[in-house]
Amino acid sequence: MNINEKGNLVVISAPSGTGKGTVITQLLEKDPEFVFSISATTREPRPGEIDGVAYKFLSRERFVEMINEGKFLEYAEYVGNFYGTPVEPILECIETGKTIILDIEVLGAKQVMEKIPDALTIFIIPPSMEELEKRLRGRGTDSEDKLLARLKRAGDELEEKSRYKYIVVNDVVSRAVDEILSIIDTNKSKGLN
Ligand code: 5GP
Predict the structure, then answer these.
(1) Cβ within 8 Å of residue 69, ≥6 positions away
(2) Is 43 touching ligand 1 by the criterion CB < 6 Å?
(3) 144-192, pLDDT tens digit by residue?
(4) pTM over 0.85
(5) Which atom of ligand 1 lies nearest, measured to the CA of 107?
(6) CA-closest candidate to residue 193, choices 105, 124, 100
């Protein structure tokens, strides 16, 4: 897949609780040419999550159908649920020259890296594991079991960071956002992503 001609594809991964959601929200506010890739998932919506905004919420059955229909650029299972990137909006953004931001975990990112080696890949890390646990507990949206599963997965995910082209520490959100903006800018001007 050649994404160089018109658009840019930016993959952002981070262990759960790194504050990646806040970073991405602020990033999207900075430039109207940034488009967020709305993933499909079989996870239950959290309070306040609207279908079709953060995620398209699907039954497991429908998700599997979409896999079989080849509708995903990538998909992966994460802590018991499926998550996948619908391919069509990606192609549309590339066609119109917009920058599309994918918020996906490491297994899905690996699939994107294989399919689109020129994708700009960024891994956000927390200042420390202690801080990560504090943030996850503070969020209070998961049962203890799920929280421990997310913490374990976070440790495993951190080991994958070297696969990414850039690593950004989320110490202060506004600083991390500025760093990502400048990474996107630099790569655009070099025509690398
Ligand atoms: P959460 O349940 O906290 O919203 O997301 C859990 C994990 O799934 C996060 O690491 C998030 O980046 C990842 N994720 C969200 N959408 C996708 C997707 O379309 N594909 C993959 N592979 N991971 C995703």
Answers:
(1) none
(2) yes
(3) 898 888 888 888 889 999 999 999 999 999 999 999 999 999 988 665 4
(4) yes
(5) 22
(6) 100
